[in-house]
Design goal:
This protein is an alpha+beta fold and 599 residues long. The longest helix has 34 residues, at 549-582.
């Protein structure tokens, strides 16, 4: 009997409700089984939510979710150890105030409720003593963390340097030359030219890595024609949406409120005499027209003042009319006549909406059956034979957005799938479902010349145009560098602009701004694009604009970001130091016991 008891005693360590309490220690602080289990469960659920599909524990470990949670808990335990050995704690009164202020423990009256406190802790598998100990530890840890993170300031020289760099302004002008500016014709490529260009520029004609995927899918649109909708449902839907189909007479109205009747009457008199417009009155009160806009209103929206407003002509100002906010002037901007769509005319729209909704519910009801088929070994092709799903194949790569690849859920699943994954049913954004299987991964491949012949010919021609333009304009570049202007060298100025490193020129190649900020004042550069050339001249270099509101926001952002980065570095340094001094011990058996609950 004694040996039996001894043998059964070991079974407690494989259950979270047994004798197992910790998965490790950092010095004097324990890392509890509950914290590790709950943290791991939270990370797995978050990953599933982002993927919109379930993941196995093997996948979670492949994503290092277990190591992520463990490292976070080790850092927490390191700071708990430091609070223990330093005697840092929080008094009962502060602990009481913290718990009383937690919203999850309040009743319907908004005050702390003892029964809600007890019930919530029971739902979380905790008792009051354990929760209060954890809360006391959390508060003490927060004191230590705040001491590390607070008060970190970056030197002004740092932000000044960054703002000077990002805000520096350069005044430029340029001339854009293309095929129409050539003095000579463009040669016709020979077969040898195309072969050579295709061989010398393989990256331009390389098909990215693709995944050949077989799939079955079902969307509401596929079965909408098979869904029947009776007249009773249509009439009920019409009544539920009556406000959409039967609309009373309405007006587009603006309202300007005044503090008293005399001020409102004086303002109306100025409008009537032509001394001011409604826009002038709005501006005088320090408002924008959007502040006075009431939008589309019906008579029922205006109450007692509806009649004079609805009797006004378009663009007419009426008033003063008494409102709950004071006397006001109203301007009518448009009159919208009453509209009524009879039931018979609304039927097609109602039928489509109801049929689509019912189709979604039909598909939702099939999810479990599809899951069972897949669990029983059915392939995606079998699904098409045994359900309403349709099968297909796709050579998918990032950037595709046609057919099933138009759905974000499919693109996410296609990006994550490997040959080790078994088909699982997943939902699409419109209420559809799909299941996929990875058949093959095709590495990046240079497409044969015959497949991309037109693209090669166009690229070769653009390269020739660019080379001819460069050769033609090179002498004029030398003249511009000597101090002459664009007109002096018979070049038309295509654009003039003051730019910063944050700037963007729509028609220019990606290297344009970088080239500008590598130039010296008065310098001239050629910037080549496909089939065109920019002749670029830098006229002046200036410092940042002190009135630039965007730059002021950037300065504040840089200051906060840098200070936050340094604070986090200090936090991590201290955590590492504590771990080194205190030592970290992990119980692999306990960790494996927790992991077994996810498998």
């Amino acid at each position: 009997m004694g040996l039996l008891i001894l043998g059964l005693g070991g079974f407690g360590v494989t259950s979270l409700s047994g004798t197992l309490r910790t998965v490790g220690q950092v010095g004097e602080a324990d890392i509890s089984v509950t914290d590790y289990f709950q943290g791991l469960q939270t990370e797995i659920r978050a990953e599933e939510a982002s993927r919109r599909e379930s993941i196995s524990f093997a996948q979670a470990r492949a994503l290092n979710l277990d190591q992520l949670v463990l490292s976070q808990l080790i850092v927490q335990a390191a700071f708990d150890h430091e609070t223990i050995i330093s005697g840092l704690s929080v008094g009962d009164e502060n602990l009481r105030d913290t718990i009383l202020g937690m919203r999850q423990f309040t009743g319907v009256d908004g005050a702390f409720n003892r029964e809600a406190y007890r019930f919530t802790l029971e739902q979380q598998g905790m008792n009051e003593r354990q929760f209060e100990q954890d809360t006391r530890r959390d508060i003490a840890r927060s004191f230590l963390q705040a001491a590390v993170l607070a008060g970190v300031n970056m030197p002004e020289s740092y932000t000044d340097t960054m703002v000077e760099y990002l805000g520096e302004r350069r005044s430029i002008e340029w001339s854009l030359l293309d095929r129409d500016d050539l003095d000579v014709g463009v040669p016709v490529p020979t077969e040898a030219d195309l072969v050579a260009y295709h061989t010398e520029n393989p990256e331009a004609f390389t098909q990215p890595e693709t995944k050949r995927i077989s799939y079955s899918w079902l969307t509401p649109d596929m079965i909408i024609d098979t869904v029947e909708v009776d007249e009773t449902a249509l009439r009920d839907a019409y009544e539920a949406r009556r406000g959409e189909f039967v609309q009373p007479e309405r007006r587009l109205v603006e309202r300007l409120i005044y503090p008293d009747q005399a001020a409102a009457e004086a303002a109306l008199a100025r409008v009537t005499d032509g001394e001011a417009t409604f826009e002038d009155l709005v501006a005088e009160r320090g408002l924008e027209l959007s502040d006075a806009d009431l939008g589309v209103v019906a008579k029922t929206d205006l109450g007692d003042i509806a009649e004079p407003v609805f009797a006004a002509e378009t663009s007419q100002v009426v008033g003063p009319l008494t409102t709950g906010l004071g006397p006001a002037l109203f301007r009518v901007n448009a009159a919208l006549a009453a509209q009524e769509t009879p039931f018979e005319e609304a039927v097609p729209q109602l039928r489509d909406a109801l049929a689509l909704d019912r189709a979604r519910r039909v598909i939702e009801a099939e999810i479990e059956a599809v899951d069972d088929l897949l669990a029983g070994g059915a392939t995606v092709e079998d699904l098409a034979n045994e359900t309403d799903m349709q099968t297909g194949q796709i050579s998918w790569h990032p950037g595709m957005s046609d057919d099933i690849a138009a759905y974000e859920a499919f693109r996410a699943a296609a990006a994550a799938i490997t040959t080790d994954n078994y088909p699982e049913v997943a939902e699409l954004e419109d209420g559809g479902i799909f299941a996929i299987r990875l058949d093959e991964v095709v590495p990046p491949t240079v497409q044969p010349l015959d497949t991309v012949r037109e693209a090669v010919a166009a690229a070769w021609e653009n390269a020739q145009i660019t080379a001819l333009l460069t050769e033609m304009v090179q002498p004029k570049v030398a003249q511009l560098e000597s101090g002459q202007g664009f007109a002096d060298v018979e070049l038309e100025v295509s654009g003039t602009q003051e730019v910063t490193r944050r700037g963007f020129i729509a028609e220019a190649p990606a290297s344009f701004i970088e080239t500008v900020f590598n130039m010296q004042e008065g310098g001239v550069e050629l910037v080549e694009g496909p089939g065109r050339v920019f002749v670029l001249k830098l006229n002046a270099i200036q410092g940042p604009d002190p009135e630039d509101p965007d730059l002021q926001e950037i300065e504040q952002f840089l200051e906060n970001e840098a200070a936050g980065g340094v604070a986090q570095d200090l936090f991590q340094i201290l955590a590492n130091d504590i771990r080194t001094r205190a030592g970290v011990e992990l119980d692999e058996g306990a960790l494996n016991a927790v992991h077994s609950n996810f498998q």
